[in-house]
Amino acid sequence: MSASPPLANAPSLAERAYRIRRHALRMGEVQGQGYIAQALGIADVLAVAYFHAMRYRPDDPEWEGRDRFLLSIGHYAIALYAALIEAGIIPDDEIDSYGADGSRLPMSGMASYTPGMEVSGGSLGHGVALAVGFALAMKRKKSDAFVYCLFSDGECGEGSIWEGASGAGHYKLDNLIGIVDVNNQQADGPSSEVTGLENLADRFTAFGWHAQRVNGNDIEALVAAFDTARALTEPKPRVIICDTKMAKGVPFLEERERNHFLRVEPDEWQKAFVALEAGRTA
Amino acid sequence: MSEPGRTLAMGEAERVAGHSVDAPFGRALVELGHARPDIVGLTADLGKYTDIHPFRDAFPERFFNVGMAEQNLVAVSAGLARAGKTPFCTTYGVFATRRAYDYIAIACAHSRVNVKIIAGLPGLTTGYGGTHQAIEDLALMRMVPGLVVIDPCDATDIMQATHAIAAYDGPVYMRLLRASVPVILDAAQYRFAIGEARRLRQGGDVALIGTGFMTGRALQAAEAVGRDGIAAAVLHVPTLKPFDADAVAELASQVRCVITVENHVVTGGLASLVAETLFERGMTRPLVRIGLPDRFIECGSVGFLQEKYGLTAERIEQAIRAACG
């Protein structure tokens, strides 16, 4: 993948999102449970990031000119692996090893394990400050690469997110694009009940960021938001706040109340694949 | 924070061997909550995963979930304590110790406030990798002046220790075994007291000194070698600080070899305490340290990892036979 326009016969972004969801479901099936709802919810964002916005070389994940994608929310590894598989960075046949002893695809994303995984994110609240460091380094190196950082609404409870956000505003890091997944779910329940005070756009704006808020399951809206974030000339870090629906694309899982760590019964997987296929638009 | 399921704290072996108690910490805290209106509960988005949910359900007005914010968790607890409450706050050991260390040191210990920090996923009780395995927390907490540090071995120990630390006026760090926790110690015989080790088995050949769930495995190993005529004593040291050096020295004086067993790196925790004790008292004994190596542990299933890193009764048994061979 590169800055050149996609080939005429390349799969649509909707098809990419479908495939990311499918890869994630296949990994979920290997373990019978996991952060599947988050993966399904964030798939559209990852499709737009990896197949519209970002520059990288699938056969050379360490290519110096690549845009960096930092997964602060390590438990979303299942989602990022799915995107990396779709991008050709991780071979499809590793799906069966997901979460197994000795696998390169552990349940929590770790830089030392997996190609394409820039940071270890299982201890939440690290990503934004790490991204500030990446972005400062890219500037010093005269690189025009962007640094993307995916973090979450619940994670914004960590003070370190706001220390990082403050630094990014101070350094006017216009090469830093934050993506916040707002799915209103965290371990102990709805984020709005646990953490409250959600007004994220106001908070980031106050910290000197350019903020946009979009429906994170609307591919056209996401494309527009990523384009705006990249094209902006204001010397500011940018954030795209994405409202997503947990388990998006598999209606019977969307309806489950407690879906932070989703358990899917053995007889439900086939049903899940069928439901996902039914919503395929490509 | 994130954690797949409710991994068994100790493993299949103990669970099928005996009976177990669900959420022993939470049960004990609810008992205390009825008797002690000053007790409050806090968590940092891990209420369901640190067994404090029974307290939350019983006393919703005395429970605070501060969200994913562990420094906040400890500092808010310290504030509550200074204003007269007795807070029990829960998170995972990695987050409490690595993230909130300064707040534990200054807001709690330096200020001598009455905060109880309850720390889930000690050592190798999760396969979620280095971000979630608290393998060095005992060493870190031991270094904090004035902090009591506890690593209980089973449900009996946890329930008694919860009562004991509630009665104690001062800051405490206690490791948590959560969910379905095996019962190894007989509640009718065993008495937990802060700072006291307990001799669980007599024997004149070798001393097994254990803390945390590894004490249970030491008992299994002692029993196994006992069938071959090797007499292994087992001393359980649930409190790392204050440390019962007298009990350790007394036992060491009665045997030829000492083996320490802990669910923690072998530096800075129980093994180091035992070595310090023996040298200070001019005692030399061969010392075998069973525990985790100086490295981050990978992701994997708990059983696989415990086997690989030797946190098993079989590994202890081998060490005993080698020492007595």
Q: What does it look like?
A:
The complex is a heterodimer of chains A (282) and B (325). Chain A is α/β, with parallel strands linked by helices. Chain A has a single domain, classed as Rossmann fold. Chain A has ten helices and seven strands. In chain A, strand 5 (210-215), helix 8 (219-231) and strand 6 (238-243) form a beta-alpha-beta unit. The mean pLDDT of chain A is 93. With 325 residues, chain B is an alpha/beta fold. Chain B has two domains: 20-182, Rossmann fold (3-Layer(aba) Sandwich); 198-324, 3-Layer(aba) Sandwich (Rossmann fold). Chain B is built from 13 helices and 14 strands. In chain B, the strands form three sheets. Chain B has a seven-stranded mixed sheet with strand order 3-2-4-5-7-6-12, sandwiched between helices. Chain B has a five-stranded mixed sheet with strand order 9-11-10-13-14, sandwiched between helices. A two-stranded antiparallel sheet of chain B has the order 1-8. The chains are: A alpha/beta (282), B alpha/beta (325). The A-B interface holds A 31, 33-35, 73-75, 99-103, 106-108, 110, 113, 120-125, 154-155, 157-159, 186-188, 191, 194-196, 261, 263 and B 1-5, 43-49, 65-69, 71-72, 94-95, 98-99, 128-132, 298-301, 304.
Structural descriptors:
heterodimer; A: 282 residues; alpha/beta; Rossmann fold; two-stranded antiparallel ribbon; 10 helices; 7 strands; 39% helix; globular; B: 325 residues; seven-stranded mixed beta sheet; five-stranded mixed beta sheet; 13 helices; disordered N terminus
Summary of the model, kept short:
Chain A is α/β, with parallel strands linked by helices and 282 residues long. Helix content of chain A is 39%, strand content 12%. Chain B contains 13 helices and 14 strands.
